[in-house]
Specification:
Helix content: 40-55%
Order of helices and strands: HHHHEEHEEHH
Number of helices: 7
Distance between the termini: 134 Å
Number of strands: 4
Mean pLDDT: 81
Strand content: 5-15%
Length: 224
C-alpha cells in the first residue's frame, strides 16, 4: 500500500517538473493591439512601425487649414489697385458699355496724380484770410499740375466757406484759397493747415471721378 502511494507521488512530481520546463522555454504571447482609427483596412499595406499613422482628426484639421489660408489683399502698387477696383465695379455693373470704357485714360490720370503729389515743388505763403500756393514742376510734372489743379478749383469753390482761383505761371500754377468771411479765424486756420495737398483732397470726388474717366464720360476742364 505504501509502495503504491510512493510510486504515484513520484509520478505526479515528475509531471509537474516537465510542465514547468516547457512553460519556461515557450515565448510570451504578445497582447492584442488596441483599436486605432488610422489602422489599415483589410488588404491594404500596413504603415511601417517607425512611421506614425495620421489620425482622422489631424487630417481634417490640416485640410481645413489649407482651405482657410489667407491671401494677400494689397495689390502691391497703388495705381494698379485703383484700376483693379474700377474694373471690378465695371464688371459688376450690367449697364457698363464696354465700347466706351477707356482704362488707359484712367491710367494717364493716375500718372498725373503721382506727378503732382510726389514730384511737384510747392511754395506756400499766408495771405489775408487764407493761403497762396505756387506749384511748379518740369516736363510731365508741369503738365500734370495744370491738368489737375485748374479743374480742382471748381470743387473748392463748391465749399460754402471759402473761395479759390488759379493763375498759370511758368512751370505750373498759382492757387489761392481764402475764407469768404475774413473774420472766420477757424476757417482761415483750416485752409492754412490743409495746405496744397490737403486742399487737393477736398470734395471727396476722386472715386466717382475715376469711375467716370474709365467709363469714357466727358469731364469738363480735364484734358484726358
Amino acid at each position: 500500500m505504501l509502495k503504491r502511494f510512493a510510486i504515484g507521488l513520484g509520478t505526479l512530481v515528475a509531471i509537474a517538473l516537465v510542465i514547468q520546463t516547457v512553460s519556461a522555454q515557450s515565448p510570451p504571447v504578445p497582447p492584442a493591439p488596441a483599436h486605432d482609427h488610422g489602422a489599415a483596412t483589410p488588404g491594404a499595406q500596413a504603415a511601417p512601425r517607425d512611421q506614425p499613422v495620421m489620425s482622422h482628426e489631424r487630417m481634417h484639421a490640416e485640410h481645413m487649414a489649407r482651405m482657410h489660408t489667407v491671401e494677400p489683399a494689397l495689390p502691391g502698387q497703388d495705381a494698379f489697385g485703383a484700376i483693379a477696383e474700377v474694373v471690378r465695379l465695371l464688371d459688376a455693373d450690367p449697364k457698363t458699355d464696354w465700347s466706351k470704357v477707356n482704362l488707359e485714360r484712367l491710367r494717364q490720370h493716375l500718372i498725373d496724380m503721382h506727378e503732382v503729389v510726389l514730384r511737384s515743388a510747392v511754395t506756400q505763403s499766408p495771405v489775408p484770410a487764407g493761403l497762396v500756393m505756387e506749384v511748379r514742376g518740369a516736363g510731365r510734372t508741369a503738365e500734370a499740375i495744370r491738368s489737375m489743379v485748374i479743374p480742382h478749383v471748381v470743387e473748392l469753390n463748391r465749399m460754402p466757406q471759402w473761395s479759390a482761383n488759379t493763375e498759370t505761371m511758368p512751370g505750373g500754377v498759382k492757387l489761392t484759397v481764402t475764407a469768404k468771411d475774413a473774420a472766420d479765424a477757424k476757417t482761415i486756420a483750416r485752409i492754412r493747415g490743409l495746405g496744397f495737398i490737403g486742399l487737393l483732397t477736398e470734395g471727396a470726388h476722386h472715386g466717382p471721378h475715376h469711375l467716370a474717366i474709365a467709363r469714357g464720360e466727358a469731364i469738363a476742364g480735364h484734358t484726358h
